[in-house]
Specification:
Helix content of chain A: over 70%
Distance between the termini of chain B: 8 Å
CATH superfamily of the largest domain in chain B: MetI-like
Order of helices and strands of chain B: HHHHHHHHHHHH
Radius of gyration of chain A: 24 Å
Oligomer: heterodimer
Structural class of chain A: mainly alpha
Number of strands of chain B: 0
Distance between the termini of chain A: 36 Å
Structural class of chain B: mainly alpha
Number of helices of chain B: 12
Strand content of chain B: under 5%
Largest sheet of chain B: none
Strand content of chain A: under 5%
CATH class of the largest domain in chain B: Mainly Alpha
Radius of gyration of chain B: 24 Å
Shape of chain A: globular
Order of helices and strands of chain A: HHHHHHHHHHHHH
Chain lengths: 302, 314
């Protein structure tokens, strides 16, 4: 009798197809560091989304008599800034701006990079042109390119987001390009070509789901970095403008008051660091959960 | 090896041309008319026309680029609009100052992360190892501009151990230790996140090496643990250490811009920041170009060193 007869005769129940969310969820539950990261992020996100209801004061309203008061001032736990605005409210509202300005470019650049990378991997001639252009953008230090583009376009949130999207584009495109080149050699693509599937359909229906994972994994590892860069651009005065609460701007505002009110500069930095740590803790687990090779280990692990 | 060097040098030419073109074309991102933006809305039309002529904005794009590139090859980056001096004449001194800061930072990155990685890898999964990993997580997540302010607050304001700004004292110019004293805080701020990344990557490279079969063979031959760790493990992890350190040069350039601004270090990053504040277009272009080209060259040097160190490539 064939050793595998039993498995041949009574086919094992096919594994239930699971969505990526299932694996992400399992991964987070299994790893306490990822759990920590997820909790911190959930907390900050809720604070950012519900800022208008959660913040005790309007972030632009000032209490001139209490200006520069430090931590533990009655009614203002985290103190007040140089204009007498409540720091806690400014930090909550600032999170809203900083997170938006940091996350949007990552999503936007992925949206542009996926078609670019797919086309580059499919058509060699077009691909070499696209990748040479990307090589040139790679030759700039990331922060420098962001500063230069934002400086020429002029200050403002929209311009900063455009600048960061362009800066991220070469990195994201290369990730998609490499993933798509590997996919191209797989037999399902060969089958699709043999079945005379139109090229756009091969690229955007057959190949896309397998390439998106690579792009998402890359995005989760870079998002912390982009939040820091976005706050940095605002710190330089190139991003969000002054009366708006934003972590980079608050840090920059407090620089002159380091001698008597250091909390203005130091608190927003702690917020940025916390959020970035949370993203970094979560990033590793997301990478495992979205990679088809390692995700099954997550589901079986207790 | 000479073949590799020549090939890499030849590959650098199109990249450098591309970089210069990106810097050149970026001027067109300036909303509206560049000359008008620089001079302000009240400027007379003749003044705007004169500036357009001076900047060469009236000619076709490729001709403009050709002229710009030709001038660039003769180290002519145009006139600074705010300071009315040649950009190139200012940048020479600034780039030297930046190199000094970068040199200190790179020294910190290489020494600190090498020591931390060797310590962590040889004490794998000990408390010290865990603390190192936690420390690198903190350092990698701290924005440079904030870390600089924190260092400034702790070691210049609270405990005045280090000067708050600049490169030298006015009354006591020069002296190597004077320079080190001024460079310590900005160099730490610049190096921090790179130290974190290099430590992590080289730690795992060293752990990988420890698990290789040739290490097992050496261990079974009874070679002392100390010699095993500090000679064989380190030597074989060296190429990946140098590789990741080389990749940090780009990050260092980015971080240095922020620490130069915070510590008032008279380098090219501070110059770039001032140029941005004054909307001095030729100066922004000059600074960006110089930083980007230096970055291209330093990447080449890093590649070269990795190649020279890697036994399998020789």
């Amino acid at each position: 009798m064939h050793p595998n007869a039993e498995t041949i005769g009574t086919p094992r129940r096919a594994a239930k197809p699971r969505s990526s969310f299932f694996f992400i969820w399992r991964g987070i539950l299994a790893d306490r560091y990822a759990m920590c990261g997820a909790l911190i992020l959930a907390f900050v996100m809720v604070a950012a989304i519900f800022a208008p209801w959660l913040a005790p004061f309007d972030p632009t309203v000032s209490f001139p008599r209490l200006r520069l008061q430090g931590l533990g001032t009655p009614d203002h736990i985290l103190g007040l800034d140089h204009q007498g605005r409540d720091m806690l409210s400014r930090l909550i509202w600032g999170g809203r701006t900083t997170l938006f300005a940091g996350i949007t470019p990552v999503v936007l650049s992925a949206l542009f990079a996926i078609p670019l990378g797919l086309v580059a991997a499919w058509n060699d001639r077009l691909g070499s042109v696209i990748m040479r252009v990307m090589d040139v953008l790679f030759a700039f230090p990331m922060v420098l390119l962001a500063i230069m583009l934002a400086a020429f376009m002029g200050p403002g949130m929209v311009n900063m987001i455009i600048a960061l999207t362009i800066v991220l584009l070469p990195y994201n495109t290369r990730v998609v390009y490499v993933a798509a080149q590997q996919e191209r050699n797989n037999s399902y693509i060969e089958a699709a070509i043999a079945a005379a599937t139109p090229t756009p359909k091969i690229l955007f229906v057959e190949m896309l789901p397998n390439v998106v994972a690579a792009s998402i994994v890359y995005s989760t590892t870079i998002v912390g970095n982009i939040i820091i860069t976005a706050a940095g651009l605002s710190f330089l005065g190139l991003g969000v403008q002054a009366p708006t609460a934003e972590w980079g701007i608050i840090t920059s505002d407090g620089r002159q008051y380091l001698f008597n009110a250091a909390h203005i500069s130091l608190l927003p930095g702690i917020m940025i660091m916390t959020v970035v740590i949370a993203f970094n803790l979560l990033g590793d687990t997301l990478r495992d959960a979205l990679d088809p090779k390692t995700r099954l280990a997550l589901a079986s692990r207790k | 090896m000479p073949r590799f060097v020549v090939m890499r040098l030849l590959q650098m030419i199109p990249v450098m041309l591309g970089v210069s073109f990106v810097v050149f074309i970026s001027v067109y991102l300036v909303p509206g008319d560049v000359a008008r933006t620089v001079l302000g809305q009240q400027a007379s039309d003749t003044a705007v026309q004169a500036l357009r002529e001076e900047l060469g904005l009236n000619r076709p794009l490729l001709v403009q680029y050709g002229i710009w590139l030709w001038d660039l090859l003769q180290f002519d980056l145009g006139y600074s609009i705010s300071q009315r001096v040649e950009v190139a004449s200012l940048l020479g001194e600034k780039i030297v100052n930046s190199f000094i800061l970068m040199g200190f930072s790179l020294f910190l990155v290489i020494t600190v992360s090498f020591l931390l990685a060797v310590f962590s890898a040889t004490h794998f999964r000990s408390i010290g190892d865990r603390l190192t990993i936690f420390g690198t997580l903190l350092l990698a997540s701290a924005p440079t501009f904030w870390l600089g302010i924190l260092l400034l607050y702790l070691f210049s304001v609270k405990f005045p151990l280090f000067p708050t700004s600049g490169m030298h004292n006015f009354y006591d110019p020069g002296g190597f230790w004077e320079l080190v004293h001024h460079a310590t805080l900005p160099a730490i701020a610049t190096a921090a996140s790179s130290i974190a990344i290099v430590t992590r990557v080289s730690r795992s490279a060293m752990i990988d090496v420890t698990n290789k079969t040739y290490m097992m063979a050496l261990r079974s031959r009874g070679i002392r643990r100390r010699r095993l760790n500090y000679v064989h493990m380190v030597r074989n992890a060296l190429p990946s250490f140098v590789n990741i350190s080389g990749l940090q040069v780009g990050y260092l350039f980015g971080s240095a811009i922020f620490s130069e601004i915070i510590f008032n270090w008279p380098g090219i990053g501070l110059q770039l920041y001032n140029a941005i504040l004054q909307r001095d277009v030729p100066m922004i272009q000059g600074c960006s170009l110089v930083i980007a080209l230096t970055f291209v060259i330093s990447n080449f040097l890093a590649d070269f060193i990795v190649r020279a160190l890697d036994a399998s490539e020789r």
